Amino acid sequence: MLLPANPNFFARSPLDRAGHHRRDGAWLAQALDAPETVLIPFHQARPFVTEEGERISAGWLGAHARGRIAGDDALMLFLGLDAQKAAHFAIDVADPAPLAELGRFDDLRALGPRLARDDLAILGCAKSIFEWHVRHKFCSNCGAPSAVAEAGWKRECPACKAEHFPRFDPVVIMVPTFGDKCLLGRQRAWPRGMHSALAGFVEPGEAVEEAVARETLEEAGLVVREVRLHSTQPWPFPHSLMIGALAEVENDRETVDQHELESCRWFTRDEARALVAGKHADAFAPPPFAIAHQLLKSWAE
Ligand SMILES: [Zn+2]
After folding, report:
1. Annotation: CATH topology of 169-300
2. Distance (Å) from CA 156 to ligand 1 centroid
3. Gap from CA of 52 to ligand 1 centroid (Å)
4. Residue 132 Cα, ligand 1 centroid: separation in angstroms?
5. Ligand 1 mean position to 73 CA, how many Å?
6. Ligand 1 center to residue 205 CA distance, Å?
């Protein structure tokens, strides 16, 4: 299900999630026997990849490989169907050894843009859900061990019958603008010259627009007059949803919160274009992989 407007990596998965199949044990068993079905192994939330020269690819295997790489109790996640109706699964592999000769398990963030965009969106989804399972083995209602249900999309508590669904954390990420310039921040730990959008978690009871205004005021001391939502990005580190916005502020007299940022800096539109192109004289912005880049690009153009 492709949506045309979203420019972000990890968005635009090519799979139809076909959620109605998640509860259908007979259908899932049949799908796992089908010759066209594929699965992607994960080990400790790192996807399996293969390398050929400079080219890195997601290490999709035929579903028949399942018995060789994992036990019957391995966590399986039904990811959806591609355009040819082939089922896609992810499988959590406890022992990486049987696959060592074919490829390697690697960090998705480091692999990032080297993978095909379609695979990146699918692998990001699987990673988020595996991370959730690792952190939610026990019922948050009564403390008993919970069990995987619905092809990996739910956990159920056998003791109190509570149901638990994968959670993700909404984060606002915004570029404050004032007339023909925009503000970017810098954290102390970042490489020299790097500047990026401001960001922070949305808090309970808060609208996204309110979170944009609060974080902009907290981090840069600027009062937001208008919030323009731009796009969103699933960000599987470990399971956030980045909500990108441009925030028009009242004036350009910022006060930097030194706990959060080392400094802030205003950039003209020409400078922003140079940042996006990687041609600014003494500053640089995150790569296209990050929504901050897409926000800046959209404003600059
Ligand atoms: Zn419980």
Report:
1. Nucleoside Triphosphate Pyrophosphohydrolase (3.90.79)
2. 8
3. 47
4. 17
5. 21
6. 26
Which has the closest alpha carbon to 33: 83, 89, 77? 89
Mean pLDDT of the chain: 95
Spacing, Cα 9 to ligand 1 middle (Å): 36
The domains spanning 19-135 and 169-300 adopt the same CATH topology: yes
HSE at residue 88, side-chain half, CA atoms within 13 A, is 24
CATH 3.90.79 fits 19-135, yes or no: yes
pTM: 0.93
Instruction: Note whether 153 and 90 are within 8 A (CB).
Output: no
Ligand 1 centroid to residue 166 C-alpha, Å? 16
The span from the CA of 217 to the CA of 201, in Å, is 14
pLDDT of residue 113: 86
User: Following CA atoms 279, 280, 283, 284 in sequence, which dihedral angle do they give, to the nearest 10 degrees?
Assistant: -30
The domains of the chain are located at: 19-135, 136-166, 169-300
Q: What is the pLDDT of residues 231-271, one digit of tens each?
A: 999 999 999 999 999 999 999 999 999 998 999 999 999 99
Q: How far, in Å, is the centroid of ligand 1 from the Cα of 159?
A: 5
